Amino acid sequence: MCRPTSLFSNFDFTPGPFNCLDYWQGGAVGGQLLDQIVGNHARLRVICALPAGDPRITSIPEGFEVYSYKVNINNAKSVGSACPGCPTPVCIVLNSITIDQPDGTPGGNILVSASAVRNYATWQGGFPGGCTIPTPTRNTTWGSIKALYR
Q1: How far apart are CA 99 and CA 36, in angstroms?
Q2: Local structure of residue 131 (DSSP, 8 states)
Q3: How far apart are CA 14 and CA 24, in angstroms?
């Protein structure tokens, strides 16, 4: 892999932007896992939460747009000694977000799988006609994700 440390997650929205509710209030912890699937397809899994017992753990108010996480890609090796794939068109698609609500929250956990505007970003033009190439999904348990960090 040409740029193994160039992709990282961030859960801190205290410096902005300020368009949505900052549920985490600078206190979230988490991590990411990037799986190479097939060819140029990959899956990025991000998990974040407030520490157990944190007083900020509450249900999300109905009707509010809430920040979840940011994925940053730095510009290391993007010019000069660039990686071979840098000029390749790319499409990054958000398939879903699962929101685990506190026990007893009306409606329980929430699966967000439809976007209000769009669920993708492109690099170098993306794919012709937008990001319509499906990404295979796999059901993963919380226990298997935790085991990755033990």
Answers
A1: 25
A2: S
A3: 9
